[in-house]
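pinned: reference chain
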Amino acid sequence: MRILKFIFVIVAFIFFSSRSLAEGVESNEIGYASVFDDKGVTLGFDENSVKLFDLSIPAIRCRDEEKFVCIKSKNFVFSIPRKMDGIRSWHHAGAYYQIMQSAEGNVFGKFIRYKIIQQRWRGLISSYAYSEERGVFAIMAKNRHQLLLVGNCGIAAISNQDGCEAAGVTATFHAQ
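pinned: its structure tokens
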């Protein structure tokens, strides 16, 4: 059963990636799509907004000189320290973050090291799969929605290794 679920996730990722690229996703947007939800939850980010379905909510990013890479809006917040060495938890923008697990494995065809980060914000708990090279590549939202990155670079990527902008919340999609 787990293998079937894994195969479904990979097929859905390929479908959503090719669909977004074919529909002409703007180069400055980052997107996530639900794989298992019949409501088709989508979450997107660009330079100045967070997008949930068709709603666009104003957002701000942390400045380059701040200690965090972040995006903040009235309905979404995520931050990661620019230097993670030895850090297991942090507070920022009203949210508490804790690294629950460090792992490594083959993700979207590439071997990477990543962290599972739990966020507590406004009484809600969400989890993020995060790597410095890809940024956030999967989200388990408060209502158990599972969102996967559509494209190559997610929010808060802090390494240029995979072509993502260093210390950026905004990145470009790349055909794979």
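why pinned: The longest strand covers residues 95-107. The CA atoms of residues 36 and 171 lie 25 Å apart.
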